[in-house]
Amino acid sequence: MERQFTKEIESLRLGDGETFHGEGILAVTKALLQSGVSYVGGYQGAPVSHLLDVMVQAKDYLDELGVHVEACTSEASAAAMLGASINYPARGAVTWKSIVGTNVAADALSYLASAGVMGGTLIVLGEDYGEGGVVAQERSHAFALKSLMWLLDPRPNLATIAEMVERGFELSEASSTPVMMELRIRACHVRGSFTTKRNLAPAVSTRNRLDGPPKEFIYDRLAHPPATFRQEKLKSEVRLPAARKFILENRLNEVFAGSENVGILVQGGLYNGLMRALRTLGLADPFGASRIPILALNVVYPLVPEEIVGFARDKKAILVLEEGQPEFIEQEVATFLRRADVPTRLHGKDCMHMAGEYSVEALVRGLARFLAPHAPHLDTSGGASWLRELKDAKEKAASLLGALPQRPPTFCVGCPERPVFSAMKLVAQDIGRPHVSMDVGCHAFASFEPFSQGNTLLGYGMSLAAAAGVNPMSSRRAVAVMGDGGFWHNGLLSGVASNLLNKGDGVLVIMKNGYASATGTQELISSPPEDARMVAVGASAAGADRTIENTLKGLGVNWLRTVNNYDVGAMARTYREAMTTPQKGLKVIVAEGECQLERQRRLKPQVADKLKKGERHVRVKYGVDEDTCTGDHSCIRLSGCPTLTVKDNPDPLRRDPVATVIDGCVGCGLCGENAHAAVLCPSFYRAEVVQNPSLFDKLLHKVL
Ligand code: SF4
Ligand code: SF4
């Protein structure tokens, strides 16, 4: 796993009146235990991976409390796990990245929301929306609306986040409804502190087990007709009013008074950005006192009509700040005001942009637009001059730097997935470019230069399924690329089983790097066991497990090859065979090479230990002989390794820059392999850096 959470695990033990310091997402973790959660599950994904990672690493402590932790194989399994709270008074929490994870979990969530819950359930969503988002730009809000599940969006400070976790469970129980809590990237990583409470041992737990199923069998708890017809009515007639009552009585939303007769309704998660914007406009002080009254919605669904109308009634105009589209909140607020016959002017998306993140810059512009007609007496010139300065700084930077080359994201140095795409690129030069169906994971970087392979991206584990329609219509076999994480998440059933059922053709490349790497190298069912990883320094650990191959064989895949990624020649031969063999049916290449990032994490302490003990250690590096390099940069176009770059040609008679390998090279060997497989110029050399040399090394050095 990418991090050890030793310090964070200690903070989970804090008791009454102590102070927790750390990140927002870890405050959630502590607050779950303070709430007496019985079970926790989830599927990793930024920005909420740390929640589950900490829980998994804190297993011993959680065992003491009786809390069960499950590293689920998908968001669907995590959502289904919440079924434990339908019949039993057990509080449960799960986490994943949204919107993608919520899409995967949708089926189980619908059923859960229909049946309703007895024990409180909280779904912690990493709302991956905005400039740092890496998936489809959609909002979880739509899921809350369609299923009538409640959605919290706490103000990003640790005390509010922790409180909303505890209140979220209570709200869930008061209204028999699952509650979701969205945390944007910044909220997950915001740092701060809060005063802790002691952890509660759960009412139902691994230490306090259930005595069988409920004594009385209750049909109404099954999301199945005829119960579903009643459940549909319960949602709007009983659960929704109960939730609104709880929200109002417990003041889950916060009103910040101000002196003006205009107001702002803001999603809780945007509150910090709003305060920064108000300060920039000269309308708030550094301690959070604002001249404009604010209603911060820590609960963005359901909205409470009395609360909204009460806030708006005495104001000339209100502005709704709601990031993303469509404007769900604004539309509902408009309905409330109209029904109550309140004439307050309503603004929102007419002052702000519809799609995209609300940065401070955008908020300053939008607020100025809102205030100009409704509070013209306010001096907002500070905001205007800040925007001018910002514009000048950007223009100055652009004129100084000129047009910068695009810098697409790419694989880590020495990544085992890079050689596979080098081999695919080489073969495509001979047989023509195939349609490449890409998947979610590190290998998606091959969609960018210099590989430019990847025509579609349809979701995690979906690449082979996404090629099913293309393959029968293509003159060349379509290729699907999938990581081992994606394979276990969805690829095995949605892709492989479907292909076999339909007697499909085509090629599937599975990147078996040993972990769910892109999300922080979490373990998979096929991860090599710990002892197999501790092989001699330098060896690959990904080969110690054959679960993927055995599963594929068991399912009936007849054409199956496992190839060492770094052997570009062997990979190219195998890939060519898969693309050209007359044999029909699915052809699977398991490309085997351990995630380099995880490998380095694993090896670094071992190497440091060896060096400390004065033992001999050899580190491999590659280099380019600048006299031989022709300067055509074919090697760079085949590799894309960030440490293989260019420098000025030292030869005054040659103008083209030469290739060079800078210090970060981890000696993965791809440079040499590519030079060999693509018959490039013979400028690459392999060097061995010997640390703590032996007598023989020293002697050899003198002789040479
Ligand atoms: S995390 Fe691992 S698999 Fe992903 S790009 Fe880096 S080395 Fe490659
Ligand atoms: S050998 Fe080449 S591809 Fe591998 S890490 Fe070094 S420079 Fe990068």
Enumerate the distinct ligands: iron/sulfur cluster
What is the molecular shape? globular
Helix content: 40-55%
**Into which percentage range does the β-strand content fall?**
15-25%
Spatial strand arrangement across the major sheet: 3-2-4-5-7-6-12
Mean of residue pLDDT values: 94
Structural class: alpha/beta
Report, as a whole number of angstroms, the end-to-end distance: 43 Å
Number of β-strand runs:
26
Provide an overview of this structure.
There is one protein chain. The chain is of the alpha/beta class and 704 residues long. The strands form seven sheets. The chain has a seven-stranded mixed beta sheet with strand order 3-2-4-5-7-6-12, sandwiched between helices. It is globular and about 90 Å long. The mean pLDDT is 94. The structure holds iron/sulfur cluster (SF4) (2 copies).
